[in-house]
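Worked example

This section walks through a single chain of length 275. The input is the sequence exactly as stored; nothing has been trimmed or padded.
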Amino acid sequence: MLKRILAVAVGWFALAGMQPAPPPPPAGMALWRLDCGTVEIGDLDFFSDTFLYAGRKKTLTDSCYLIRHGDQYLLWDTGFPAAMAGRTTAAGSMSVTVRATLVDQLARIGVTPAQVTFVGISHRHDDHTGQAASFPAATLLIGAEDFEAMKKGDSAARLAPWIEGGGKVKPVRGDHDVFGDGSVVMLDMPGHTEGHHSLLVRLQRTGPILLTGDLYHFTEAVRNRSVPSFNTDRADTLASMDRFDAIARNLHAKVIIQHEPDDIAKLPPFPEAAQ
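Given that input, the structure is written out below as tokens.
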């Protein structure tokens, strides 16, 4: 009788879509935060479609991340174009300073472009795709809708190795378990763009880390649930915020808003790594 009850219970959980807890993160996993630029915003008005920040100024960061998993590496987001390195570029009410390329930063920890297994893109905007082409041998992971938009738009050259050169690409729909063991998962968070994703990274010592992509741009936006006027879908953005915040609570995760200087400071300074 007990065996029958257990069998029924197992079958019920399977039908209900319940999945076993992921195994512990593999030993040796590490996460480095990389400097992909600093952005001075002269007017934050366009970061809220309710005119919440009109006339205010703020300094934002543009951060990228390298995750080591065994002998494989995932590069998450690729910042502004490498041609901007070593100078400050003005664009409207913004100015962008890029100090070093990703290739040069990775060289400091002994990682070459050929060693990067995956390039994961949170979304299609230029400050997240600018140096992707520096890693042509990697498999590109990007939201399917964003990939289609880039193929048809002015930014196609940023993904030339995969759009024109036959590089391996996985257009991601929904969530995607990068290494197949639950340690690194692209989370479907549409709204900022149609194919926008955040990233969950589970480390042995640090525990779960959530990288926002551009779901949030700075800390105050979390409290205000502010939706930038340039987002593609307001309702999707708010639904993604609900999901992201619930995941953060349930996992007791360390949240890193990728454009917020105070948040990236929660992680060790490069070339140190979180483990």
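What to look for: The radius of gyration is 19 Å.
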